[in-house]
C-alpha cells in the first residue's frame, strides 16, 4: 500500500513539474521565474509596502490594547491648626485608569484587523505595480534590441551588396558611381546601428537599475504571439475577482466605516475609575476610597463623529470610482491585446512579401538584370517591414502578458509577505 502511495506521489510530482516546465517553455521571451520573484520582492515599492504591513501589525496590537494606561497620582501637604500651633503632615496617593466601554473594545479590534487587511492588499498592489514596471521595461529593452539586430543584419547585407558591386565595377559591368553609392549606404546603416546600440544599452541599464536581479540574455528572446482566449466578460471577472487595488480601497472603506462607528460610540465618554488612600491630620485620620470620574463634552465629540461619517462616505465613493476605472482599464487592455495580435498577423504577412521581394531584386542585380537603386530600395522596404513586424510582435506579446498579469496568471503576486518577514 505504501509503495502504491509512493508511486502516485511521484507521478503527481512529475506531472506538476512537467506543467511548470511547459509553462516556462511557453514564455521564453520573459525573464526566468526565479529572477522575477527576486526582482519583485526587492523592488522599492514592495519593500515599503512590506514595512507598512509590519507597521499595521504593530498598530493592531495598539488598537487591541486600547489608548488608556494606569495613572498614579500622589500629593503631600501640611495642615496648620490655628490656635494650637500644630503643623500636621498629610499625603494622599491614588491609582486610576480610564475604562473602555465593552462595545468600543470590539470596534477597536475590528479596526486593527481591517487596517492589517488593507496593508496586505497594499503589498499585493505594490507587487502588481512592480510587475507592470518590470514588464514595461523588459519589452522596452527588447524593442531597442530588435532595432539593433535588424540594423546589424542590414549592415551585413549592405556590405555584401557593396562587395558584389565592387566585383562588378572591377569586371566593368557597373560604373564607379554605384560603388560609391553602395559604400555610402553601408556607412549610413552603420550610423543607425550605433544609435540603436546606444538606445538598447540605455534601455537595458534602466531595467537592471530598477531590477538588479534581472539578467539580460546575450541573445534577444523570441516568442510567436498567441491570440487572446475568451471574451471580455471572462477577463473582467478574472481581473476583478482578486484585484489588489480594488481590495485595498474596499478595506480602506471598511476602516473608515469602523472609525465612524468608533466616533459614534465615543460620544458616550469612557469613565475613569480610581482607588485613593489619604493620610490626614498627621495620621489621626486615614481615608480609603474609590472614585469615578466622567468627562462632559459640549459638541466636540458629536462634531468628530460627523467628520468621521463624512470620511466614510468619501471612502465609499472612492471604492465605486476605482471599480469603474478598473473596468475601463480592463476593457482597454483586453482590446489592445486582441487588436495587437491581428496587427502582428498583417505585419508578418507584409514582411514576408517584402523580404522575398528584396531577395529577388538582389538576385536580379547580381545577374545584371536590375539597378543598384532598385536593390537598395527593396532592402530599405524589407528593413522597414521587418521592423514593423518585430515591433508588432513585441506589442502583441506585451499586451497579452499585461492581461495575464492583471488576472494574476503571469507571475505570483499574492506572496504571504507577513509570514516571511516576521
Any overview of this molecule?
This protein has 422 residues and is α+β, with helices and mostly antiparallel strands. It has a single domain (36-410), classed as Outer membrane efflux proteins (OEP) (Up-down Bundle). 71% of the residues lie in helices and 10% in strands. The chain has 10 helices and 4 strands; from the N terminus they run αααββααααββααα. It has helices at 2-25, 33-41, 44-65, 102-171, 176-210, 232-241, 244-265, 300-366, 372-406, 417-421; strands at 71-81, 86-98, 272-280, 285-293. Strands 1-2-3-4 form a 4-stranded antiparallel β-sheet, with no helix packed on it. Helix 4 (102-171) runs antiparallel to helix 5 and helix 4 (102-171) runs antiparallel to helix 9 (372-406). The longest helix is centred in the first third of the chain and has 70 residues, at 102-171. The radius of gyration is 37 Å and the shape is elongated. The two termini are 41 Å apart.
Keywords:
Outer membrane efflux proteins (OEP); four-stranded antiparallel beta sheet; alpha+beta; 4 strands; 422 residues; disordered N terminus
| SSE class | alpha+beta
> Could you name the ranges where pLDDT drops below 50 across 5 or more consecutive residues?
1-26, 416-422
Can you say what the CATH homologous superfamily is? Outer membrane efflux proteins (OEP)
Mean pLDDT: 84
Helix and strand sequence: HHHEEHHHHEEHHH
CATH third-tier fold name = Outer membrane efflux proteins (OEP)
The percent range for helix content is over 70%
- Domain count: the total is 1
Identify the strand order in the major beta sheet: 1-2-3-4
CATH class: Mainly Alpha
Rounded radius of gyration (Å): 37 Å
The outline comes out as elongated
The largest β sheet comes out as: 4 strands, antiparallel
Termini separation comes to: 41 Å
- Counting H and I runs of at least 4 residues, what is the number of helices? 10
Tell me the number of strands: 4
CATH-level-2 architecture:
Up-down Bundle
Strand content: 5-15%
Amino acid at each position: 500500500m505504501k509503495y502504491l502511495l509512493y508511486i502516485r506521489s511521484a507521478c503527481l510530482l512529475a506531472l506538476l513539474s512537467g506543467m511548470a516546465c511547459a509553462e516556462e517553455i511557453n514564455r521564453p521571451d520573459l525573464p526566468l521565474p526565479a529572477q522575477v520573484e527576486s526582482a519583485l520582492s526587492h523592488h522599492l515599492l514592495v519593500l515599503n509596502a512590506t514595512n507598512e504591513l509590519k507597521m499595521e501589525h504593530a498598530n493592531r496590537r495598539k488598537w487591541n490594547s486600547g489608548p488608556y494606561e494606569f495613572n498614579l497620582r500622589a500629593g503631600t501637604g501640611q495642615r496648620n491648626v490655628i490656635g494650637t500651633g500644630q503643623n500636621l503632615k498629610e499625603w494622599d496617593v491614588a491609582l486610576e485608569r480610564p475604562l473602555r466601554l465593552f462595545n468600543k473594545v470590539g470596534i477597536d479590534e475590528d479596526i486593527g484587523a481591517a487596517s492589517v487587511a488593507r496593508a496586505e492588499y497594499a503589498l499585493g498592489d505594490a507587487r502588481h505595480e512592480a510587475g507592470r514596471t518590470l514588464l514595461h521595461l523588459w519589452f522596452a529593452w527588447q524593442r531597442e534590441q530588435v532595432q539593433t539586430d535588424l540594423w546589424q543584419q542590414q549592415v551585413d547585407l549592405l556590405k555584401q551588396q557593396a562587395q558584389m558591386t565592387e566585383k562588378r565595377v572591377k569586371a566593368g559591368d557597373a560604373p564607379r558611381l554605384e560603388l560609391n553609392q553602395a559604400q555610402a549606404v553601408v556607412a549610413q546603416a552603420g550610423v543607425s546601428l550605433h544609435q540603436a546600440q546606444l538606445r538598447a544599452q540605455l534601455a537595458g541599464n534602466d531595467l537592471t537599475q530598477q531590477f538588479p536581479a534581472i539578467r539580460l540574455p546575450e541573445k534577444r528572446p523570441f516568442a510567436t504571439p498567441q491570440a487572446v482566449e475568451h471574451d471580455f466578460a471572462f477577463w473582467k471577472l478574472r481581473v476583478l475577482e482578486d484585484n489588489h487595488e480594488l481590495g485595498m480601497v474596499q478595506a480602506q472603506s471598511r476602516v473608515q466605516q469602523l472609525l465612524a462607528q468608533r466616533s459614534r460610540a465615543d460620544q458616550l465618554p469612557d469613565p475613569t475609575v480610581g482607588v485613593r488612600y489619604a493620610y490626614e491630620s498627621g495620621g489621626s485620620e486615614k481615608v480609603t476610597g474609590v472614585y469615578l470620574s466622567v468627562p462632559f463634552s459640549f459638541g466636540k465629540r458629536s462634531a468628530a463623529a460627523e467628520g468621521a461619517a463624512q470620511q466614510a462616505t468619501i471612502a465609499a465613493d472612492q471604492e465605486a470610482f476605482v471599480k469603474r476605472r478598473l473596468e475601463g482599464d480592463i476593457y482597454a487592455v483586453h482590446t489592445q491585446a486582441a487588436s495587437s495580435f491581428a496587427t502582428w498577423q498583417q505585419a508578418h504577412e507584409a514582411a514576408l512579401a517584402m523580404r522575398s521581394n528584396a531577395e529577388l531584386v538582389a538576385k536580379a542585380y547580381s545577374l545584371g538584370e536590375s539597378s543598384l537603386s532598385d536593390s537598395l530600395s527593396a532592402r530599405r522596404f524589407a528593413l522597414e517591414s521587418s521592423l514593423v513586424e518585430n515591433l508588432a510582435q513585441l506589442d502583441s506579446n506585451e499586451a497579452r502578458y499585461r492581461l495575464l498579469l492583471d488576472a494574476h496568471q503571469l507571475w505570483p503576486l499574492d506572496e504571504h509577505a507577513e509570514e516571511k518577514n516576521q
